[in-house]
């Protein structure tokens, strides 16, 4: 966590900070509607499209009594007249107590946190990081497995451009995981992240096959969408986009505890027939985003876990 309480990258969080935030989120799961942020203003600046992240942040703020301002489409802002990101951030900081921002440029959230007088929460910066998604992924993993330590986590699909897998990899360094990377060669986990694993002592195995025998070893099967918006060559996207589709018969050897996660949106990675399978957990995972984002906003605004535990307010 930055000195000004910004959350730019998951790599900044210690194990203790992660567990503290997950514990706070757990309080919000028990009772989400409170008055803890009455009088505060939360700004959501989405320079890139979003459904879950923006709406769950806005719901999180609303359910805590805060007001929300912002935009979901940069075309309606003065950025179209040439206003810089710095000036936009400085203006919004005049109005809001905290800024949640998604931007297509890697490093945009870091830059915003350096110029803004209020906390910034990175809601995704290019192919780089998506720390609030990672926090809800960790929450969901702990919820379904009863622990975060010593798990076999299989990452499937677009491991090159998928910011959620990059953030998850970094967060799990505290918890002795074994990662399995399943991707077409064109979308393999970048060497920089493999070197990160080696430096941090994170075990990993690479596979190209994706079948029942491979899936049999998973505690978490984390599916991802091929990120069309990051390709400069759409022919290359067409070649790889449907390479790994999870079908029901591929779960025949899966462990009972195995859960299928996906940051969503899903395009063609998980057959709809799997939605009713007990291993499917991606919709509950998205729901957890609300509680985790309540914790992230509160923490950034100086509300502590004790405050949350001792709070008896009810938002009607
Ligand atoms: N998981 C996620 O970031 O979804 P959105 O793009 O809909 O926010």
**Category by helix and strand content:** alpha/beta
Termini, distance in Å?
32 Å
Q: What compounds are bound to the protein? A: phosphoric acid mono(formamide)ester
Q: How can the largest sheet be summarized?
A: 5 strands, parallel
* DSSP strand tally: 9
Strand order of the largest sheet: 7-6-5-8-9
Helix and strand pattern: HEHEHEHEHEHEHEHEHEHH
Q: What is the oligomeric state here?
A: single chain
Helix tally equals 11
**Overall mean pLDDT score?**
94
Query: Given the C-alpha coordinates, what overall shape results?
Result: globular
The radius of gyration computed from the alpha-carbon positions, rounded to a whole number of angstroms, is: 19 Å
Helix content: 25-40%
Strand content: 5-15%
Low-pLDDT runs of 5+ residues are none
Report on the architecture of this protein.
- Helix 1 crosses helix 5 (131-145) and helix 2 (52-62) crosses helix 10.
- The chain has helices spanning 15-30, 52-62, 85-95, 108-115, 131-145, 163-171, 191-200, 212-215, 234-240, 282-300, 305-310, and strands at 41-46, 67-71, 98-103, 120-125, 152-156, 178-182, 203-207, 220-223, 259-261.
- It is an alpha/beta fold and 316 residues long.
- The model has no long low-confidence stretch (mean pLDDT 94).
- It is built from eleven helices and nine strands.
- Helix 6 (163-171) links the parallel strand 5 and strand 6 (178-182).
- Strands 7-6-5-8-9 form a five-stranded parallel β-sheet.
- Bound molecules: phosphoric acid mono(formamide)ester.
- Phosphoric acid mono(formamide)ester binds at residues 50-53, 124, 133, 263-265.
